[in-house]
Amino acid sequence: MEESNTETKIQLLITVTTGLEKYAAAELQEVLGSEVVEECLVKPGKLEVILSWARRSCDISLEALLKNRLLKLKCPEHIQLIISQKDNFCYSDMRASIDQLIESRKNSFERALSLFRDLKPDNKMETFRVSIKKSRSFHAEINPFAEYFAEKFSSVFDSFCPSLTEYDFDIIMENIEKTLYLSLKLTELPLGLLQVSKDRELNYVAVRPSIAYAMHRILSPQNGDVVLDPMCGCATLSEVSMNGGPNQDGIFHICADINPSGLEKAANNLSTTTNGYYDIVLMDSRASPFRDGVIDKITVDMPFGKKSGSRSKNQDLYPSCLKEFNRVLKFNPLSYALLLTTEKNLVAKYCIKKYNWKFNGYTQINMGGLDSCIFKVHKRWPKLRSSSNKTNVQEEEK
Question: pLDDT tens digit string along 231-247?
C-alpha cells in the first residue's frame, strides 16, 4: 500500500475458484472501472490486482470505493490487502524474512490496519491470528514460524495480542511462484455468501454461490428468457442469478426437483429475492411436463456420483436427462444448456455421439479438489438431405 499527496495505490490478492479467474477479472473491471484497476495479473486461483485511486479524478472516497464496490463482488472468494512481498523466497530464510518484513514495512502495516478499521468500524482490533499457507514442496512444520511471527509482530505493535480462536484480524503469509506475500485478510466469509440470504436453507450438496454467479455470467440470460434448473435442490443457481444484476426483472426461472424437501428449501431461499419471477415444480428431470422447445436456457448442477447418487447410477441418469433437456430446449442460436459435472467422458459420449447436442466450449474448474467442468452445449440443427439424396430415395421408393 503506497500513498502520496494525490494518489493512493493498493495491491490486492484475490482468491478465486481455480478455472474462474477470467470471469472474476471481468467482474472486477466492470464494478471498479479501468480508471481504478491499474493492473490485474491472473494466476491459478488468484488475481493480483493494483488499484490506483486519485483524489482529484474520483468522486468517491477510498473507503467507500472498497466497501461499496470491492466487497460487493460475487465471483471471488476472499480478498487480501498485500502489505509486502519478497521475490526469490526460500523457506530456509523464513525467520530472517519475517524480521525484515515486519521491521522494514512498519508504516505499511499501520496504513493497512488503519484502512481495515475504516472498513470495519465495529471491529475491536485487539487480537490477531497468523496463517501461513505453504507450498507442496515444503514439508517442514509451519507452526514454529507462525509463533515466531506472532511474537515479533506483538513486540513491534504492543497493542495487539495473538489468538488462534477469537481474533479480530487475520495476517496471512503465502508463497506463490517463489514470491512471499504478506497480507491482511479483508473478508471473513466468502464474498458469494454475502450476496445471498443469511437465513437460507442448504441441501447436503449445494454449489458455492461464487460458482453459481460465474455460471450466471456464462449463461447471460436476457429479458423474456425462460430459464430452467431441472435439478435445483435448494435453488442456489436461480437465487444467485436473480440477484446477479439489475436486468433480471423480465426473466422467468423454473426451479424443479424430484425431492419435495429440497423444493421447500428452494421456496424459502427464493422468497427473499427481489428481481425476476420464479416457479417451483415437482418433477423428474427425465420426464418433464413441458412441451417441446419452450425453454430458452437450461442451467443445472448434475449429480457428481459422490455425495449424491453414484457413478453407476449416472450411467443411466445422464443419457435420459440429456435427451429430455434436448427435447424441451428451443431451436435457437441463443438457447443453450450449462452443465456442471465431473462426468466429462459421459457427457461427451452422449452429447456428441447419441443425442442432438453440439459443444460450444467448456470451463474446467476445481471444486473442493474435484476436477469439474461447466459444459456449454447447443441444440444441433437437423441436417438437411441434399437434392441428390432425395432423388435416390424417391427412386428406391418407386
Answer: 998 898 998 888 876 56
Q: Residue with C-alpha cell 505453504?
A: 134
Q: Is the pLDDT of residue 3 over 60?
A: no
CA–CA dist 180, 191 (Å, integer): 24
Strands (E), the chain: 2-3, 7-15, 37-43, 46-54, 78-87, 127-133, 161-162, 169-176, 179-185, 226-229, 252-257, 277-282, 297-301, 336-341, 357-367, 370-379
Contact assessment for residue 350 and residue 319, using Cβ atoms and an 8 Å cutoff: yes
Burial of 377 (0-12, 13-18, 19+ CB in 10 A): buried
Write the DSSP symbol of residue 63. H
**Angle 245-248-251 from CA coordinates, rounded to 5°:** 155
Q: Estimate to the nearest angstrom the gap between the alpha carbon of 357 and the chain centroid.
A: 27
Evaluate whether 219 touches 241 at the Cβ level (below 8 Å).
yes
* Cα distance between residue 225 and residue 216, in whole Å: 13
C-alpha to C-alpha distance for 233 and 237, rounded to whole angstroms: 9
Residue pair 50/10 in contact by the 8 Å Cβ criterion: yes
394, three cell numbers: 424417391
> Can you read off the three cell numbers belonging to residue 362?
467448456
| Size (the chain), residues | 398
What percent of the chain has pLDDT above 90?
29
Strand order in the sheet with 226-229: 277-282, 252-257, 226-229, 297-301, 336-341, 370-379, 357-367
Report CA 349 to chain centroid distance, whole Å: 28
